[in-house]
Amino acid sequence: MKCDGKSPSCGHCIDKKRQCVYNSKTDRRNIDLPQMPNEEDASMIDSLMVMYAPTPEPPTSPLPVTFMSSESPDRAMLLPPSEPDTCMDATEQPTVPGSNLFQFDSAIDEDWVWNMGACSSYPALDLGSFTPISPLGSDTIIGHSTAYPIIPHDIPTPTLINDEGSSDDDDCSEYKSTSQSREPKIQAKLDDAGVGQKVPIELIRNLTDLYFTWQNPSLYIVDKKEFEKARESYVLYKRESTFYSEFLINALCAIGAAFNNTWYPGYPFPLGEFFAKRAKALMDVELDTPRIATIQSLAVLSIHEASATRDTRGWILSGMAIRLAFDLGLHLNTKQYVEDGTMTTEEARARSVAFWGIIATDRMWGIYLGRPFHNTLDTVSVEIPTRSQSGQKLDRWMANGAFGNHSRGLVLPDPTYILSERWQALYEIMSPLELTLYFKADINKVELVAFSQHTYDRLLAWKDELPKELVIDMETLDSTKHLPHVLMLHMQYALFIIILHRPWVAKKYIQPTPLFGSGPRHAREMCLRSAVDIAILIRAFEKQYSLQRANVLLVHIAFTAALILLYATVSEKDFDCQRELSTQLDMCCQALAELGNSFENAARTLDILLSVKRMWQASLVSGIQTKRAQPREWFPITRDVVALAFGQYPPKMN
Predict the structure, then answer these.
(1) Phi-psi category of 391—alpha, beta or left, where left has phi over 0 and alpha has psi -120 to 50?
(2) What is the mean pLDDT of the chain?
(3) What distance in Å separates the CA atoms of residue 85 and residue 2, rounded to the nearest whole number?
(4) What is the C-alpha radius of gyration for the chain, rounded to an integer number of angstroms?
(5) Same domain (yes/no): 464, 544
(6) Cα separation of 75 and 224, whole Å?
(7) How many domains does the chain have?
(8) Virtual CA dihedral for 512, 517, 520, 523, nearest 10 degrees?
(9) pTM of this prediction?
């Protein structure tokens, strides 16, 4: 109960008839408020400051900072002394003994200070092992100045460089936990998600090899050499790297599992989904301190989500990768850092590979879902990786994990950098088309036709300028061995031809009046010819490698070609033309059926395709539509159009 403050006994104690004792501290209710200082107090303070003012020391030349050499303890490195500063900044503190340990030296370049951990000729500053020298000199080192610390040569030196620019030898970072402290957190995350089972290292190596053989060349996201170098450094020495993480290794295995034929029991989910769940569980750990491996993981995982029919999740993951890539500065040119030695050529190349691979993945998602691109390349200065940047001859591609007897032991020259450059050029041509043709509302039909024609001319020029390593002769396709990703590149080109001409198939819906450009007949011919090209290339891929080694990009390509061929087959009245078209349609459906064993979205598209076919056939048989004219105007697949499509390379009838 609160005391009423009466004396000598309070009212409460009087009522209870007991002795009144108040044993607390001073009653704050009786404390007077502090008085405001007056002029007399101010004059007293001034007199005290004059009386006890410190005696100024004569100016002396500052001693150089001494560091012990990491190569030899007997050698020391001297930093250049600074010029005496004659004026003191308003925020600078008075000099006291021991306070000049970390004085800023204006003679040292601040960029050099922040990058000194990457310089091979200077040891990094070890802030963690430094013990300040006391003002009394109890911790001084005999023979050296007491004003500067001596860095022992046998103590590890952490670096202060940002993680995305560090090399594999940088095993520490100020903002990043060490690998030893990360591993318990990683295992706890996996256990919580129910996927904490131990995975044999042989399985991981097998799945990553499958990824780099069959998927990575088409969407070149991960530089294999830098990845393997960083992985070896982590496994053997527990050194963290910007190009390796547990998130990335699990994302790669999730894609590689689609090409695996070996059964591994003991896991709660199918192998691909098992590694995908592990990657998602580790994503939160990675996003706290993102690195280049985090960005690559998001892009690779988005591809897996597409194959699992989780399109929205995949599209979001790809967008996250794009945002982080720009945030970490992967879009900037690193040439000056390579020239001054703060970044190796291999590291700069791996950064370029990661950025442009993520851009290609984002473009793939935009075309796959029919959504516009929300990022611009106006601020991008990093170069597309080319063979000249690698400084090496063409690598050798081996058909690792070849299915059955298809190309087992096959070794071919691998123009990875040439292929990546041409793939990026293809997406660059299509990027403005996707926005202008499908999403720009304030453009008239004549401008659309002219823009489409310009894009078509650029596509033709792209194909004419292909280097000899990427050229395919359709007439000798069955007798010549081609890399699987080169076949995929030509199928992607044919897909873009269809996407470009498909809106102009209609005779009146979008055509300008009066008619301008090549007209609907040309659009129908190009769509049909490209669909036939895709079917023939799929047959060549199946013969050389088996469709079980085709990556997820083939699902969209085969489905688009099948829709065009199905439309043409159902509409065609001529028996010979219908038989030729049905042969190519069966090839696309067979491809989707085999791809359905590895990718769920292939099975989904095949079901949609069969439903559309039944609907169109029922519509024609029941007579719901009006009686067809000769030729049918809305899609007249006449014999001469089919002949043009099959003119150069007639299909083999099985």
Answers:
(1) left
(2) 75
(3) 63
(4) 36
(5) yes
(6) 39
(7) 2
(8) -130
(9) 0.69
Model confidence at 187, pLDDT cuts 50, 70, 90, reads confident
Q: How many CB atoms lie within 10 A of CB 491?
A: 26
The pLDDT of residue 138 is above 60: no
| Listed residue (521, 517, 500) closest to 446, CA to CA | 517
Each residue's pLDDT tens digit, 221-272: 999 999 999 999 988 888 889 999 999 999 999 999 999 877 888 888 989 9
* C-alpha to C-alpha distances, 279 to 184, 195, 315, 647, nearest whole angstrom: 16, 10, 17, 49
Residues 372 and 445 reside in one and the same domain: no
Map residue 68 onto helix, strand or coil. Answer: strand
Q: Which of 365, 385, 405 is the last residue of a domain?
A: 385
**pLDDT at 153 exceeding the cut of 90:** no
Token pair belonging to 556: 């969209």
Determine the pLDDT at residue 35: 63
Partnered with residue 173 across adjacent β-strands are 159, 176
Backbone dihedral angles phi then psi of residue 239, each to the nearest 5 degrees: -95, 125
- For the four alpha carbons of 428, 433, 438 and 439, in that order, the dihedral sign comes to positive
Containing domain of residue 186, as a range? 175-385
Q: Which neighbouring-strand residues pair with 241?
A: 244
**Does residue 191 belong to any structural domain of this protein?**
yes
Write out the DSSP string of 423-475: HHHHHHHHHHHHHHHHH--S--HHHHHHHHHHHHHHHHHHHHT--GGG---GG
Tens digit of pLDDT for each residue in 536-575?
Answer: 999 999 988 988 889 999 999 999 999 999 888 887 777 7
Per-residue CA distances from 605 to 302, 396, 563 (Å): 19, 35, 10
Q: Is there a domain that residue 117 lies in?
A: no
pLDDT of residue 326: 93
